[in-house]
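User: Here's a chain of 134 residues. Predict its fold as tokens.
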Amino acid sequence: MKQIKIIPIFNKIDSPHKEWVNQIKYIPRKEYTKVWFKDLLNQMEMKEDRKKYPDSIYFFIDNKVVMEQDEKNERLWVDYKKIWSFFHSEFNLNWLETSHLIKGMVEEHFKMRSFTPRRIFCRSCVLGWKNISK
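Assistant: Prediction complete.
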């Protein structure tokens, strides 16, 4: 099983945590996918406006939509460039593994039912999200 080295990041000159350098940990790559996505979920803000968008819940990071829960079509749309592709390129997850991981972690983190994740990589779809404000 592939493993990645987790090294604490800190300012080498001023940090009171210099002893961390000697405490490098190894965790399985697939476990780190959960750590990475959990950190991303912690950055997200869930927002809904039932008057304007009656069938959608949006998830924002830095005032930009990165996911949309589409209740009408029962899909969880996920930004390909910012999220989905990272699972494949950095963690070597296939489509099914990525889909299951996103669905399960969104449900757990936001305490809600999540639909089947789908990646959005068409330019017009992402551009449509630009008109949605927090």
